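quick one, 319 residues, struct below
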Amino acid sequence: MTKILIAEDDNTLRAMISAILELSGFEVFSYPNGRLALNAFPTIAPDLIVSDIGMPGLDGFGLLEGVRQYSSGSVVPFVFLSAHSEQEDINSARRMGVDDFIFKPFEPDDLIDAVNTRIERRRMAELFDTHQAHLQTITLLANIIEARDLYTRGHVERVRELALELGRGLGWSLSAVSVLEYGALLHDIGKIAIPESVLNKPALLTPEEHEIIQSHTLAGARIIEGVSHLRDARPYILYHHERWDGSGYPEGLKGEAIPLEGRLLAIVDVYDALTSDRPYHRRITHRDAISFLRIEAGHHFDPEMVELFCELREAALRI
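---
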């Protein structure tokens, strides 16, 4: 539950603010001055602070300054309750890094809107920071794996960009697109278990070698299974070689039984393979690759998803 710390010396107003927030599903901790609120801060570890400016003992400025001294307090949203006449106080608060103001008198909706907005902004900032940290590690790992394959240099990064283009075109949420980025970068992670003699063989593969190559989907899914922040990317790794008509691998899934993640990545993976030089074929033009995808709609690919991808590619390339 989201925790809100309140500092307000007016008993009636403090009780009203607490009631409004509690009815909205927040866990509230309220104190009559800044000193008590600051003392409680390390134990409560609130997600947001709402504070009056003028209070006895320790005012709102002192509370804000004290909270910002904690490493954990540097990112906690801080909202001041203020009268419109306190312009000098407002300017000082802005210089100290206050996040928002609620001007007295206020309606309950004003308070809820300000709190929800700041909580959501903090959540999105944390999501971005976490995503970027994971992304650096994942990109490094993907580059190490790709370096083993002489014929697919740059493939992972190109697939990432194409996958993001399609995911956004489909209107996927920010969190879904974040997982998509992980999945696109790691879709071939299972190739780390494939012998380089098979992975880089310039001649046609034997049936046995084909089976070894195909095992990279299962191997990749096993590799990330125990990594909590990567587990949601598993469908990209496991199902990107399934086909709409059921002729793919590893499970031979058909149509909508194939997870959306696998359907999306199958399209961008094949598109990049077609437009890149490989030991078994020379690259073809983007126009020809788009024509091939359309021909394979309903056979290899999800027909609706592949049509959107082709439209996006045509717009990007102005074909």
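Residues 3-120 form a domain with the Rossmann fold fold (CATH 3.40.50.2300).
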